[in-house]
Structures are given as C-alpha cells and as structure tokens.
Design brief:
- The structure holds 3 protein chains of 3 kinds.
- Chain A is mainly α.
- In chain A, 69% of the residues lie in helices and 0% in strands.
- The longest helix of chain A has 29 residues.
- Chain B is α+β, with helices and mostly antiparallel strands.
- Chain B has a 3-stranded antiparallel beta sheet with strand order 2-1-3.
- Chain B is elongated and about 65 Å long.
- Chain B starts with 7 loop residues before the first strand and ends in a 19-residue tail after the last helix.
- Chain C has 13 helices and 2 strands.
- Chain C has a two-stranded antiparallel ribbon.
- The chains are: A mainly alpha, B alpha+beta, C mainly alpha.
- Chains in contact: A-B, A-C, B-C.
- At the A-C interface, helix 1, helix 2, helix 3, helix 6 and helix 7 of A face helix 3, helix 4, helix 7, helix 12 and helix 13 of C.
C-alpha cells in the first residue's frame, strides 16, 4: 500500500468511527433517563457527526476522485467501513451505551492528542478541533460511570456487567496493523502502545473510583478496522443509507 | 430508595469577559458537577457563554415581594442621589 | 397551538381565590403591562391556567422530538442529519426551559411528567401524526414550526415574566427551524419527480393538522377571553390561523405544490384567503387520544421514563453518599 493510500484509509477509519458511534447515539434520542441527559447525548452525537464530516471531506480531498462526505457515508458497503467493532455494538441500556462511550473516548482522546502533533497538517487540524469536544465528553462519561458504579447496588451490578460484556472489543483499538504502522512511521502518527498505557491508566483510575472491577484481558475481538464486522453493522447501514440508495444521485 | 426529585439549580452565564454573570434559567442535577455539565449542555449550545455559575435554588436568599414597599420604595424619595437632580449652568464643562 | 388542549374546557380554573381588591390591583398591574414574577401575589386561577398552558407547551416540545427523531437515523445526507439533530435537541431544550418556567409557579417537574405519562396532561395534537416520508421533516419545519412561531412570538410579551423570558429564548433559537424545513422542501421540489411527489404528499397530510394547531374556532374556545384579559394570550385562535394561511399559501405556490383545499381562494376585497372547513371531529378525536400515533408517542415516553429510573436513582444515591462522606 502506498503512503498516500494509507493516509486515506486511516482518515476513513477516523471518519467511520465518528459516524458509526453518532449513528448509535442518535438511536437514543428521546429515550434518555432525564431531559438534561437528552441534551448532552445530542451534543455529543452532533460533535461526532461534525468530526465525521471533516474526516470524510479530508479523505475525499486526499483521494482526489471527487468523492465527498456523503459518498463515503452513504454509498459504501459494509466491508468498506473500517470502524471499530466496539462502536457498532447495539445500545443496550443506559449503562451499556455509557461504558461503550467511556472506553472509546478514553482511547480517542489520547489518539487525537497524538494526531495534533503529527506532521500531516490536515489531520492535525481536525484533531485539534475534535480534541476539545472529546475532552468534555470524557469528563461527562467518567462522572456518569462513577455515579452508576458507586450508586445503588442495582446500578453497580448493571454497569459491571456492561463493562465485562464490552471489554472484548477494546483490544482492537491497540492492535497496530499495516496502516497504523505506516501512519506512525510516515507522518509521526500515534504510537498505539503508548496510547494503550495512557488509556489503561485513565480507565483504571475511573473504574476504581466507580468501585468497579476491571475485567481481565482474555479473548479480544478484532476485524472492524479491516472491514470485517459483526452482524449489527449491516442493519445500521441499511437504515442509514436507504434514501441515498433508493434514489441515487439526487440532491437532498 | 427515595423517589425524590433531582434538586433544582439556577444557572448564571457570563456571555463574554467583562460582563457580569446573568441568570439564564434552571436545570435539575443530583450533584454540583452534574449541574455544571447540564448547564453547559442546556444553556451554551450556541456559544452563549465563557463562564458558568450554578447554585442550588434552595440556597438562594431572596427578598420577599410582600416587603417590596419597605425594601425599595424609600430609595425612590432620594432623588438627590441622581446627577440629573442638580442644575448646572451652561458653560460649565467637564462636570 | 402547543397548548390547544387548554381550549377544551377546564372546570378547575373556575375557582378564584383573592379579594376583589386584590384582583383589581392584579388586573391593574397587567393592564399597565407590568410583568408578574414568581413570588408575586396572583389569583389562583391565573396560576393554574399558566401551569396548564406552560406544562402543555413543555410536553408538546418533548413529545415533538419523536416524529422528527424518527428520521434521524435515515436522514439522506450528513448535513441534514446534523441539522435535524440540532433541531430535535432544541425541542428538548425548549421543553426544559418551559418546565423550569412552570416550576416557578410551585409545581415540580416530576409532577408534570407524571401527569403527561398518566395521560392526564395534554400536548399538541400535531405530534400524533406519523412522519412517513423524508419530506415530512420539511413539512414539520415549514408548517408546524411556522404555525408555532405565530403563537410564540406574542408569548414573548406574556404577562408572566418567567414564561415570557423562556419564550424569548425559544423564539431566538427557533428562528432556524422553519427556514430549514422550507429549504428542505425547496430542494425536493427542485429535484426529481419522485422527490417533488414526496413534498406534495407531505403537504397533503400536514396541511389540515397544522390548521388545527391553532385550536377551536373563537366561538368554541372557552377560555380565550380570560387569557386575553390576563395577557397570557394576545391574539385569538382564528386571527392567528388566518394570518398563518395568508402567509403560507404564497410559500406553497413558490414551491410549486398545491394546498389540499378546493375551497381555498383569495378574497380580493379583504386581501385574506378564505378556506374550507376543518374536520373538527378529527381534531376532537386526536386530542382525546385517538390519533394515529397517540398511543405510540406516550408509550415511548413511558418506556424512556421507566428505563431511566435506575439511572436517576443511582445518581441520587451517589450524591447522598458523597454528601455523607463530606460530612464525615
């Protein structure tokens, strides 16, 4: 793979992560436990849609074939999406969605931080913008994890199960493949090993504060980054893409 | 477990540096940190502020409307506190 | 409007506390365009009317998130998805501002929510209609928000301070809602034949329910006179409905789609449009709970509320523990 192609693919991964997570979050609209949290969820989803649009547009620019944000979002098939498996997992209850959010954003914040220092100006600029949003998300989701973990007996149990269930999807974030390595080498991009250490430190701290137990690393699922997805993604895309696919080429 | 309502907080926003915080409305939250987050997510979606204050509504000490006359009307008689009370002849400047 | 259920009659507000002197002094303040504030003396009927109106308005905003939220996952472009989400979020925010305004009158949000969930409280009939095609999102912005704005702008001058202030914020934020809806429809109307057909279909289904949003005819509206005297309401249902028709017909013509009313015509003498009779039986049915989506909308709220219970309790339990730790 050429260096240019690696950068395009890497940018699409970032875009797909943001889009797929936002799509899951907007499924939660009008279902929050309290009105204030409803607004917070929408704010975060809006941040992610905004990030996805920036990353897709940049990928299109790099590619130079005239593809724009909507071509990437609506006209690619499942195996062309390269988001993390974690993000396509169904919402479940408030605790499930929260833990997914927490584990991803603890990683994503450090990833963006590293990208702000990379030598590719385009990516660094988007990362600098996104990291402000993500820092706030991390604050919000960590606080909620602590409230649920150290709340009632019921909430403690619920959120411990959420953590245990979703843990298997965290490994994929840190396994560097050909593209990750190329990005690290070519543009002084993120070192996933170093990010894993930072992530672990942050997650351990919040999990302890939440009086929860950190799951043990056992078998880890992978493949999302390479386009091999769980059964869930196909349904998400079928729903998301249906108008564009039914009436291709129209303006909306 | 009690089914009490989440406490009410009043929200004050400083729209930009140099201005005072101004009452924007209220939100519910169970703790102070959540109150700040909720105020942020509710009242600053359109860049309305650079600083936020939140305070539990039940901690605010307010004057009683029944005492409005006793509290505020005496000041109405003291028109000599206002600069327009004084007549200064034309020609006197910088006063 | 968002509070049209008010016009359906209310036996409770007949009771009015206060001496004739108090009532006269209160009316004098209102007539002098003074704002009434939360802790000021007010007739019990004024307080109750406001609680009902503001809470219905809040419920309408919150339930109103659903028909549009229905298309969030299917919005056909990322730009439209972001716009729609921002709009749906604003509606939640407006519900929140309005619940807060009602709370200043001495009712808790929990009580208001309980009244909504039990079916005791009403919300605008319009949100009990389904959104079945993408153009419906445009029609809601253009027609439903357009109709709402007609009513909401005068509410910014309502006699009750906290309500008026909440409405100022709401109106400021809503200014983009109607325009985005119209622009969405304009894009469809300039697009393919199928897209234009979607827009026509949406207008066909949303036109009459939008006219119903203004509530019953003035001759049938039981509480308008008192609300007008109290300056909670500034214009009558029929005045606002006429104003809405007059501005909207021309906008439909520009889109190139037709208003589904064979009796609609411009009266050259008055400069106003005359229009056909509203199906009032449908209006009564929908208000009474028998619209296409009443059950579904309410069940979704009930489910969100009960699903969230353990979360709300956890947050409270955590706060109590923290308080106990701080005290220890």
């Amino acid at each position: 793979m050429s260096n240019d192609q690696a950068l395009i693919n890497y940018t699409l991964r970032l875009a797909d992560n943001a889009l797929i997570l936002s799509q899951r979050m907007i499924e939660l609209v009008a279902a929050a436990p309290e009105l204030e949290e409803e607004l917070a969820n929408a704010n975060f989803a809006l941040d992610f849609i905004g990030q996805a649009r920036l990353f897709y547009s940049y990928a299109g620019e790099l590619e130079g074939k005239g593809r724009g944000e909507d071509d990437f979002a609506f006209m690619r098939d499942e195996n062309e999406f390269c988001n993390l498996l974690l993000l396509e997992q169904p919402n479940g209850h408030f605790g499930d969605a929260l833990v997914r959010q927490f584990l991803f954003e603890a990683f994503y914040g450090h990833l963006l931080d590293a990208l702000t220092h990379c030598s590719d100006k385009g990516l660094a600029e988007i990362a600098a913008r996104a990291i402000k949003e993500v820092k706030y998300h991390c604050r919000h989701s960590s606080q909620w994890l602590v409230r649920l973990g150290d709340g009632t007996e019921l909430s403690h149990e619920c959120v411990q199960v959420s953590l245990d269930d979703v843990w298997r999807y965290t490994g994929e974030m840190f396994v560097a493949d050909e593209i990750d390595t190329a990005i690290q080498e070519n543009i002084d991009g993120p070192d996933l090993g170093a990010i894993r250490a930072l992530w672990k430190r942050d997650v351990e701290k919040t999990v302890a504060e939440a009086t929860l137990r950190l799951p043990v690393d056992e078998w880890m699922a992978s493949g999302g980054k390479q386009g091999q997805h769980s059964e869930h993604l196909g349904f998400m895309l079928a729903e998301m893409q249906y108008l564009q696919r039914s009436f291709p080429g129209e303006t909306w | 477990m009690s089914k009490q309502e989440w406490p009410l907080y009043e929200v004050f926003i400083r729209s930009k540096s140099g201005l005072s915080h101004r009452h924007a409305g209220s939100i519910h939250a169970t703790d102070d940190q959540m109150a700040l987050d909720n105020a942020r997510d509710t009242y600053t979606r359109r860049c309305e502020g650079v600083s936020l204050w939140v305070v539990r509504s039940d901690r605010i000490i307010a004057s009683d409307p029944a005492e409005t006359a006793a509290f505020f009307e005496p000041a109405e008689d003291k028109i000599y506190r206002h600069p327009t009370f004084y007549e200064i002849p034309d020609g006197v400047e910088n006063l | 409007m968002y509070t049209q259920g008010l016009d359906q009659g209310d036996k409770e507000t007949q009771a009015s506390a206060g001496t004739p002197e108090q009532l006269a002094a209160f009316q004098e303040r209102i007539d002098a365009e003074e704002k009434i504030e939360a802790k000021d003396w007010m007739p019990e009927a004024y307080r109750r009317t406001l609680i009902r109106q503001i809470s219905q308005h809040a419920h309408s905003e919150v339930i109103g998130m659903q028909p549009e939220g229905n298309w969030l996952t299917r919005a056909p472009s990322l730009k439209r998805k972001a716009i729609l989400l921002a709009k749906v979020q604003d509606e939640g925010g407006h519900g929140l501002y309005l619940y807060s305004a009602a709370e200043t009158l001495g009712i808790s949000r929990d009580q208001m929510v309980a009244d909504l969930l039990s079916g005791k409280a009403k919300y605008s009939s319009i949100f009990n209609y389904p959104t079945v095609n993408w153009a419906d999102i445009g029609a809601i912005g253009w027609l439903v928000d357009g109709a709402a704005i007609m009513n909401q702008i005068p509410l910014c001058r309502c006699s009750y301070g906290p309500y008026a202030r909440a409405m100022v914020r709401v109106c400021k934020e809503e200014s983009f809602h109607q325009r985005q809806g119209y622009e969405l429809l304009l894009t469809l109307c300039r697009g393919s034949a199928e897209q234009k057909a979607m827009a026509q279909d949406a207008l066909n289904r949303w036109w009459w329910p939008s006219l119903m949003m203004f509530g019953p005819n003035d001759s049938e509206s039981k509480h308008s006179a008192q609300s007008m005297a109290w300056k909670i309401k500034r214009f009558s249902n029929d005045e606002l409905r006429q104003k809405f028709v007059d501005v909207t017909v021309q906008q439909a013509e520009f889109l190139g789609i037709s208003v589904p009313d064979p009796d609609l015509k411009l009266d050259k003498k008055t400069g106003h449009y005359t229009f056909g009779e509203i199906d009032w039986q449908e209006f009564i049915d929908v208000i009474a709970g028998n619209g296409p989506c009443n059950k579904q909308r309410l069940e979704k709220r009930q489910k969100a509320h009960s699903d969230g219970e353990w979360v709300r309790e956890a947050a409270q339990a955590y706060a109590s523990k923290q308080a106990a730790r701080a005290a220890a």
